[in-house]
């Protein structure tokens, strides 16, 4: 799995984790977006894995869901299966982010 495919798979799994948590709370996307102070279409994109939320946005989403960002990421790893290799996919995404910061 190349880095772009790994990142895309991770975003989809993260979005599913966010959706599951939101639905458990009984919130519609529209209601959730209103409470979080974000656009409903942006929230939809996060849940579908087509948006790449910033750390700030992940924190805002997690706070509105009443959880920590780390729980959403763990939920993504557990539920996503990410091609059957969660650890490798998460490592590839982390490596890619690290390389962007490296001089």
How is this structure best described in words?
It contains six helices and no strands. The protein starts with a helix and ends with a helix. Residues 82-86 have low confidence and may be disordered. The chain is mainly alpha-helical and 103 residues long. Helix 2 (29-36) crosses helix 3 (40-48). The chain has a single domain, classed as Orthogonal Bundle (434 Repressor (Amino-terminal Domain)), CATH 1.10.260. The chain has helices at residues 3-24, 29-36, 40-48, 55-65, 69-80, 86-101.
Quick rundown:
By secondary structure, this protein is an all-alpha fold. It contains 6 helices and no strands.
- Residue ranges: pLDDT <50 for 5 or more in a row? 82-86
- CATH fold descriptor: 434 Repressor (Amino-terminal Domain)
The main pleated sheet reads as: none
Count the E strands: 0
Into which percentage range does the β-strand content fall?
Answer: under 5%
> How confident overall, as mean pLDDT?
81
- Helical amount: over 70%
Assembly type: single chain
What is the terminal separation in angstroms? 25 Å
Shape: globular
Using the coordinates above, name the CATH class.
Mainly Alpha
Query: Based on helices, strands and strand pairing, what is the structural class?
Result: mainly alpha
The CATH homologous superfamily is called lambda repressor-like DNA-binding domains
Number of domains: 1
Run of helices and strands: HHHHHH
Which CATH architecture? Orthogonal Bundle
Radius of gyration: 14 Å
Alpha plus pi helix count: 6
């Amino acid at each position: 799995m190349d880095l772009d495919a790994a990142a895309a798979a991770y975003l989809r799994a993260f979005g599913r984790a966010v959706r599951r948590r939101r639905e458990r709370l009984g919130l519609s996307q529209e209601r959730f977006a209103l409470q979080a102070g974000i656009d409903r279409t942006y929230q939809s994109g996060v849940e579908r894995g087509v948006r790449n939320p910033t750390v700030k946005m992940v924190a805002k989403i997690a706070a509105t869901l009443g959880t920590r960002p780390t729980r959403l990421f763990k939920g993504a790893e557990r539920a996503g299966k990410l091609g059957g290799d969660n650890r490798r996919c998460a490592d590839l995404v982390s490596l890619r982010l690290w390389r962007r910061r490296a001089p």
